[in-house]
Amino acid sequence: MRVKDETKQLAIVENTLCVVSEKGFAGVKMADLAKRVGLSVSTLYVYYKNKEDLIMSIAVDLIERESQRSEQEIVEALPFKLKLKTVWLFWVNFSINHRKEMSFLEQLKKSPYYGKLPNSVKERKSKLSTALIDQGKKEGLLKNVDNDILMAILIAVMGETVKLIIHDKMELSQNNMDLMFSMVWDAIKS
Amino acid sequence: MRVKDETKQLAIVENTLCVVSEKGFAGVKMADLAKRVGLSVSTLYVYYKNKEDLIMSIAVDLIERESQRSEQEIVEALPFKLKLKTVWLFWVNFSINHRKEMSFLEQLKKSPYYGKLPNSVKERKSKLSTALIDQGKKEGLLKNVDNDILMAILIAVMGETVKLIIHDKMELSQNNMDLMFSMVWDAIKS
Amino acid sequence: MRVKDETKQLAIVENTLCVVSEKGFAGVKMADLAKRVGLSVSTLYVYYKNKEDLIMSIAVDLIERESQRSEQEIVEALPFKLKLKTVWLFWVNFSINHRKEMSFLEQLKKSPYYGKLPNSVKERKSKLSTALIDQGKKEGLLKNVDNDILMAILIAVMGETVKLIIHDKMELSQNNMDLMFSMVWDAIKS
Amino acid sequence: MRVKDETKQLAIVENTLCVVSEKGFAGVKMADLAKRVGLSVSTLYVYYKNKEDLIMSIAVDLIERESQRSEQEIVEALPFKLKLKTVWLFWVNFSINHRKEMSFLEQLKKSPYYGKLPNSVKERKSKLSTALIDQGKKEGLLKNVDNDILMAILIAVMGETVKLIIHDKMELSQNNMDLMFSMVWDAIKS
DNA sequence: TATGAATGAGCGTTCATTCAT
DNA sequence: GATGAATGAACGCTCATTCAT
């Protein structure tokens, strides 16, 4: 299954992302979705076995692509602080440019769907980042506290930064980004 | 005249909070809720005009109680850093002890219900905190950046702190709390 | 039962009439009605055993009062055509001034409630009128056709006359009334 | 692809007509209707978007067919009185043979549904008849009064005629029909 | 008598999913 | 493979009526 029309396939994903980010998973109605992409409901069920399959497939795809990106983003040669900043800023930018995907992922984590994801997929995500943080600690640049805590801070502030920009409470300027990163850095640096 | 069972009223709220924090607003089914509190569906509609009324009533209650608490929690006499720390820790503790309420409020903000809240209720919330931050800036203790940004950092880290504790990734010890606050403080101090 | 507050009693009837004429019997909601007249629902059930009783009581009342009026309205001394015209015009006027009652009665006839009226009440209505028509036939002034037919014509045109006036398609002037009656008269006169 | 059972469609309309003429629009219960025609409730909603759509669709259909019939029924060549009689009798007959449809239409006019009909549908109905009446007035055969009044008389007597026959108070014989029409004619002729 | 509390039986509607061609 | 037809299981809500004080 899931072979035929690639265009439709993409349209389904795109539309699902759209609706989920606006109205949540419950807002996705199979009939609606089918109409939007110009398919009959029953044909939609040829592409995806059911609603769960639809959402899980998209989720797995998204997460896998995200992991790949993390790996590519790290430029080994840079000094630690700059390396971290680069990655951090990359994700801020990425989150803003892929709001829908991020929103989908965010909602996924709180939904019952998340629990059904294969562990292999769930684990894959954070590996990279912990390696990075370990390096910082080894170099004596980061506070010697649990990785989870440092990660939490990094991600929390990143999330708020994105929100501030999306909600037009802050401009996406070099200055502001420098400021925001300096604040996280101050928080986690030893 | 039959007499109203005050217990039921509380049970309704309690159960709603429970379900919302576990499955979101959509997870609240009037029939289900009625059964949980030992009432018939129609009686539930005697207490609340409809589902929206149920949720909004609880929301307004929660927010008002939250505002009151904020006001009470501030001990004017303390030096700024300590004052902020006290408040911040109070909310960390409170959030942990009232997970369901907090989860409800968190979801409320992203739901269409939030937009329907009377402005008077919405506005009341933030006043206190901005006053506190203003003081910190006036005393030259906080970075001279937008209040929204400082608030965002404070709240973001608070949220993550709570999550770490709830998910058993960190103990709720004096040491850990000192650590966490020191991290936020480092981030926002001038 | 049904003894206490005469004012409430009247208010109930008045409100029921109002609602029925606007939205039909189904539009009468016991709870609504109670609120309108400043009674609790349960007290409304002290006045009337149930919704059917409420409607039937009003119906019987209305019909009985209507019959009485018919009797009073006939001035024996007049010549037949004038006598008929007087009665006919009386009813046109009455129908206009008591739209709600008439509407109630009209709807009653098509409703399942009508079948439940005691025959004694149903029969009483037309007696008078048939006597009048019989007289007209005896005097050779009316077509010698079945009373039902003559009655039907009289009533049908009366109904349309009322409608024309109520819907502002005709003025309630002496001329117009003369015209309308002359039309019925032409139809039924021998 | 399963093929649509055209019978069902008709059965829905037929049953709706039946129920409406017996118990009014409120008497139509979607679940009941579905059962009558051997469909599940949800399938009924495949045929019609909702209850209003069901009723409005039938209404529009009926009115349009009625208008068409009016147009066809007029035989231009006949002298006026005969032409009018033909049409009048046609509608008497039609009303008797299509009681349910007529009852539906009658109730429609008093229901809130009527106000929601597109004007194009509402207007179409009366054009023909007014043309006919105008002719009668031009030829000096009808009383020179407002068309609304003449129409009202024609329709009112028609309605009563139908009722008399349906309620078995009069036979549908040539004689009786001649009589009834002569009565209307006497009423409206100049 | 008066009334707030409580309820069962229903109703219109939605939606993910399956059937049959 | 594609699709229109069909459906069961819910869900939110209403309302006449009864209960219990």
Automatic annotation (TrEMBL), chains A, B, C, D:
Molecular function terms, GO-annotated: DNA binding
SUPFAM superfamilies from the UniProt entry: Homeodomain-like, Tetracyclin repressor-like, C-terminal domain
- Its name, as the record gives it, is TetR/AcrR family transcriptional regulator
Enumerate the Gene3D superfamilies for this protein.
Tetracycline Repressor, domain 2
The entry's DNA-binding region: 29-48
- Keywords of this protein's UniProt record, alphabetized? DNA-binding
Q: Which organism is it from?
A: Arenibacter aquaticus
Every copy of the HTH tetR-type domain together lies at 6-66
Identify the Pfam families for this entry. Answer: TetR_C_10 (PF16295), TetR_N (PF00440)
